[in-house]
Amino acid sequence: MVPVSTTYDYALVVLSITIAIAASYSAFSFGERVAASNGSRRSWWLAIGAFAMGLGIWSMHYTGMLAVRLPVPVLFHVPTVLLSLVLAVFASAVALALVSRERLETPLLLMGGLLMGGGIGAMHYTGMAAMRCTPMHVYNDWLVALSIAVAVVFSVVALGLTFYFRQETVRFTWRRLGGAAIMGVGISAMHYTAMAAVTFMPGNMAFSPRETVRVSTLGIVAIAGTTALVLVAALVTSWFDRILRNEEALREAHERLSIAQATARMGDWHWEILSGRVQWSPQVESLHGLEPGAFAGHFENWLEIMHPEDRQQVHSAVTRAIQRGNEFEVEYRTLLKDDSLRWILCKGKVQQTSFSRAIGVLGVCMDITSRKRTEDVLRRTEKLAAAGRLAATISHEINNPLESVVNLFYLIDCQPSLDEQAREYLAIAQQELARITQITTQTLGFYRQPTRATEVYIADIVDSVIELYASRLHHAQIRVEQHYWEVRPFFGFSGELRQVFMNLVGNAMDSMRLEGGRLLVRCVESRDWKTGERGVRVSIADTGHGMEAKTMACIFEPFFTTKENTGTGLGLWIALEIVQKHQGTIRVRSRTDGPTTGTVFSMFVPYSPSQPRPTAS
Question: What is the mean pLDDT of residues 310-319?
């Protein structure tokens, strides 16, 4: 029996291949959008992409089927046609779900290619089953198997290409178009291999015309046009969504950058050399103590708010960088509204044209005041440590002749020939010599701290400090009142605690040095109101001039002093460190007006802290 003669409309063949390439190109965009989305947005893009891509593949196959010209009328069963469309959408959904994963391993790629290729093959042969005509369909099993194999192979290639191109940030590239062409040709190869597998034999097959349609040339145009419209609409929507997501990501990145800059106390700036305009981020304005928008926006205005001593070095550093076309780094000070200085580190990089012409400078500013203070602390601490070592050496050298003098005074006191007046003078000399001996011993004690905590009787330490200052207290007309309750000893470092009390008593004496007053020292067993631990509380109160709130907020900062040339600003800072090392606390309250003025320092040390370690010199 001679098969029915079939011919191809090559215009429709070309149109079908074009539709396949367009659908493949859209697959790259849809894969990118599904991968970039999450939650309900991901589901929406998966559904939109699967429908648009499936419609494109389905349209390509039906256009290719309509390209076959038979000498008999051909109708299509509508429900079966719709079923083939559903299969195409399913295959597309599988593909997009796979390529949107973070990783696409080889086993998963092969499984996905099998599902997608099988879905496309099922869609094609379901579409063939939708044909209603009198000739009989006869299939070549080998070519059918080959068409399915072609579908699976090209599906694997399509999945790999889609997974690769979804990571590209550029919307159009020739590589992307080439990949779409490979996918489109692969889909078309599967279709026309499957068409070669069918032979139409003469016959008089009966079929029901119910739910069937005949596709005219106008119908072909409608299918292709509708498919193109859907693909274009989906691509445009994808493009707009990409823009919105990029803007959202840029806004989030800018917010994260602002938070990071605010946390790190830094900001960015840009100087356009040609126009002379300098753009500051809000953080840079804040670093310089300016209100938002208060900066005039020129480099000269920037120099004006710097410390006069730093302007020249900043100007020179920037000028050299522009001349050489490299980077610069400079530190300068700026004066804030409260007359305090802030140190700022400024880094910049010169921007150049392709002809090595400087057109701008991009950089950052960072607050380094804390670092500068720390460096100053270390520098001054080292000086104090050196002074301490020198004082200890001197005290050690003084101790040797003092022992001889003490022995000589003892021998003189044993002479029976001394009269009463001489003995009185000798007793006074021995008392003063004992004070000198005590001072040198304590000086050595400050420098030579024990390495292990020992049992400390706090009242004895406070008494030794009061005794040391007895002469100064008497001459300053300061009356001392001591109230001690029975307290238990605890483990600590007596030398360091003595240093704390010497600082507190010394500060109290300085506040009352002009008019005298009353120094109240109280030692009592107490309980920490936060932790409930029991311990010793020592309160040292004076009736001096008191401190303002602004001063009280800074007294424990290193190098803050109200004594001008006589203070180092380290006493209370070191005292706080020592007390905290003993797991204790210091609280202070003060009054500068009212019927009574003065300051009270209250120190609490628990009985059972973990073993403290000695403070480093």
Answer: 91
- On the 0-12 / 13-18 / 19+ scale of CB atoms within 10 A, 399 is middle
| Structure token pair of residue 390 | 């020198």
Q: What pLDDT sits at residue 617? A: 40
CA distances from residue 548 to 542, 551, 553, 590 in whole angstroms, order as listed: 15, 5, 9, 8
Alpha helix positions (H), 37-77: 39-66
Q: What was the pLDDT predicted at 170?
A: 46
Neighbours of 352 (CB within 10 A): 14
User: 610 is written with which tokens?
Assistant: 């973990």
CA distances from 600 to 277, 280, 299, 505 (A): 55, 47, 51, 11
The residue type found at 567 is: G
- pLDDT attached to residue 601: 94
Close Cβ partners of 53 (under 8 Å, ≥ 6 residues apart): 23, 26, 27, 30, 92, 95, 96
> For 409-433, what is each residue's pLDDT tens digit?
777 778 777 788 777 777 878 777 7
**Pair of tokens at residue 596:** 């009574």
pLDDT in tens, 546-567: 888 888 888 887 777 777 666 6
pLDDT per residue as tens digits for the range 260-292: 666 667 888 888 888 888 888 888 888 888 888
Q: What residue spans define the domains of the chain? A: 7-237, 265-367, 374-440, 449-606
Domain 265-367 has CATH 3.30.450.20: yes
Question: In three state form, how does the secondary structure of 380-449 look?
Answer: HHHHHHHHHHHHHHHHHHHHHHHHHHHHHHHHHHCCCCCCHHHHHHHHHHHHHHHHHHHHHHHHHHHHCC
Burial track 501-528 (b if 16+ CB lie within 10 A, e otherwise): bbbbbebbbbbbeeeebebbbbbeebeb
* Structure confidence at residue 218 as a pLDDT band (50, 70, 90): very low
**CA distance to 34, 36, 43, 176, 254, per residue, from 241 (Å):** 11, 10, 14, 20, 20
CA atoms within 13 A on the CB side of 132: 17
**Domain 449-606: what homologous superfamily?**
Histidine kinase-like ATPase, C-terminal domain (3.30.565.10)
Specify the residue for token string 């520098």: 379
- Hey, do 265-367 and 449-606 end up sharing a CATH topology, with the first three levels equal? no
E-strand stretches of 123-174: 131-132, 136-139
Q: In what order do the strands lie in the sheet with 278-280?
A: 278-280, 266-272, 358-367, 341-352, 327-335
Cα separation of 407 and 330, whole Å?
64
Integer Cα distance of 452 and 394 in angstroms: 26
pLDDT tens track for 62-71: 777 777 777 7
Q: What are the Cα distances from residue 589, in Å, to 545, 551, 600, 603?
A: 13, 11, 6, 12
Distance of alpha carbon 264 from alpha carbon 47, whole angstroms: 44
What pLDDT digit, counting tens, does each position of 288-308 carry? 888 888 888 888 888 888 899
8 A C-beta contact, residue 523 and residue 458: yes
Query: Model confidence over 478-526: pLDDT tens digits?
Result: 999 999 888 888 888 887 888 889 889 988 998 888 888 999 999 999 8
Name which residue leads in pLDDT, 217 or 8.
Answer: 8
